Amino acid sequence: MEKSRIAAKSTPYWWEAAPVRPLPDQPLARQADVVIVGAGYAGLTAGLTLARAGRSVTILDKMNPGEGASSRNGGITSGNIRLSYAELVKKYGEARAKAIEAEGKAAREFIYDFIRTEGLDCDFQMTGRFYGAIGKENYEALARSAEALAKSLGIESHAVPHAEQRNYVGTDHYRGGSVRMDIGGLHPAKYHAEILRVTLAAGASVHSGVAVTNIDKDVSGFKVTTSAGAIKARQVLICTNGYTDGAAPFLRRRMVPVRSRIIATEELSPGLMSQLMPKLMMCGESKVLGYYYRPSPDGKRILLGGRDASQSGDPAAPTDMLRKGLVELFPELADVGLSHSWFGNVAMHRDMLPRIFENKGLTYATGFCGSGVVWAPWIGSRAALKLLNDDTSRSAFDFRAPPFIPFYNGKPYFMPAFIQVYRMQDRIAMARATR
């Protein structure tokens, strides 16, 4: 394989400005009001909410805080719901469907207010998002959806005809699309570092490199056994999402870790960036396995991500596939090198909705399905309010656990086959699309 096809670094681009590091060692408390497992966006935001309410909080992470998806994602504040409104109504009823749709808007507004009021330095920019249609039929559906968003939720959104497409993104690959202006971009590793800062300042205790090995319920609450000793807790919140292991067997049978990979180009000239991304918007497309892409916060590179069918190691083929997708969108980048290629786990499940639920006294905040920039802080904060018995802030995502997956216990052996099926569906859709 040509050297130009391989990225210079296999670590996240985001770690250049905000490297993930271990926290200073500190003794593990013998007891706490709440123990939180997982120190990503959800766990930290939950811990912040609880600590400010006066609870003693210990947050544990087997890796460094933020080393998982919180510092590896695309930094797009999409807050996607995988199911259509019609599918939500069919599955959960009209009342919950409406509440879920409304909560998507509330969740985005929550994190924007959170960034502003806490003074989080994370390169946030409210850029808007362009969503490309692969054919004229998709364009009509996106246009109707944009109109419905504006009418039902008051979100600034509109259709973009093919003739006006290059005003938003410098490619002829699509047949028009839509824009919604309530979505922006941020630097995910800086965002996590800032949430960690305010959570520590609120008095929560956060431990890195401390693996939870067992959680036992007793008369006073829970005994959490870890690699650093045991801690007693009145309540336990599990926020491990795509990095769930055997310490949470109930969740592991329900959450499927799926690799998502991102590539970053070398720095591009200002003129080329202006041509390819004239409005510096976040971008996506109407495919089952569509790419998501964006400019870097400094406006000098393009980052593009998509699903990765590999399950071990760091093979070159997924990077090469993303690079081909990048050049298909932007032929001008055929000779441009890649500076970074990396992957992280998103968590999928059979319901495909973010979720708060309980089982045997344990509370879970999880299942962000690739949109954790918005959903993880929101669901984490709502789960914390649930632990505080604040019924006024009950989430529409707080209901039963997702169904378990038969014959599955943490290793997603079936995902490569599923991804190949989805890719075939996309190829068929492209072949049938009116172009």
Comma- or semicolon-separated keywords:
single chain; 435 residues; alpha/beta; FAD/NAD(P)-binding domain; 4-stranded mixed β-sheet; 10 helices; 22% strand
Q: Can you summarize this structure?
A:
With 435 residues, this protein is of the alpha/beta class. 31% of the residues lie in helices and 22% in strands.
Proportion of residues in extended strands: 15-25%
**Number of DSSP-assigned strands:** 16
The oligomeric state is single chain
What portion of residues is helical?
Answer: 25-40%
CA-based gyration radius:
21 Å
User: How confident is the prediction overall: mean pLDDT?
Assistant: 94
* CATH architectural name: 3-Layer(bba) Sandwich
Class by alpha and beta content: alpha/beta
CATH fold field value:
FAD/NAD(P)-binding domain
Largest sheet: 8 strands, mixed
Number of helices: 10
Q: Roughly how many Å apart are the termini?
A: 33 Å
CATH class: Alpha Beta
